Amino acid sequence: MSAASRLHIVHRTTFTYARSVTASYNEARMRPAELPHQHLISSRITATPSTHHSSYVDYWGTTVTPFEVLTAHEALVVLAESRVDVTTPPPVEEVGWDVLRSAEVADRMCEYLAATSVTEPAGDLVELATDAIGDRSPSDAARTILGAMREEMEYVPGVTGVHTKAMESWDARSGVCQDIAHLGVGALRAVGIPTRYVSGYLHPLTSQAEPGVPVTGESHAWVEYWVGDWVGFDPTNRTEVGDHHVIVARGREYGDVTPLRGVYAGGGKSSQQVEVRITREA
Questions:
Q1: Domain 5-87+258-280, CATH
Q2: Could you say which residues of the chain have pLDDT below 50?
């Protein structure tokens, strides 16, 4: 087993409102998952102001922290702080196309094979994915498809939003990690490879980072495809998932794993500021 990277993650989200908010009800999905290659040392989520919070595990296996604020407030600060040891996931024993196309896999993986309204791929993206298969194994085909899709896309912050559909970003040939992950999910599912959307954090400097020095990190999105076991791939950065990716949640699409969502009464228009700082401690 490779040495673990110990990462300290501080994720701060600040909402400010035009007028006083009388009450708000929220859910946070910001706690890193406990996995064979990812050990959660500590995690806490706090909101200021807050009167009550709890936790539960949702249908997709993500730890959710609901909290409510029942006092008047002009701003809300949600702070998620975690320490996690991460190693590079081990290689998997790959199955062939015959297994992927079997009735048993189609039934068991149905939620990760069906397109959603968000991940539905355009016809020419399906053609690109189909043409990329050739005589490749499922895993090689998946990486080739994701690479070919990424070559068509330009990473451009600000041109899409959280509700942008994959077809829209594909038509524009631009977007951010969320859009690129949705496109990857849609393309791989279209050729029969079960695929799920992953949200988490990315340390931008990996093992080259100086221990103890905080850097500006990212809330990030990538994909996992199933070829006998789940394999993570980051199409935005054209790389396999390693010890600099921290998994928080997995689902069919962004809507299943939204880091922070809620409703509020009053307040008028709101603005949001997000800061992620990641420190490699070991």
A1: 2.60.40.2250
A2: 1
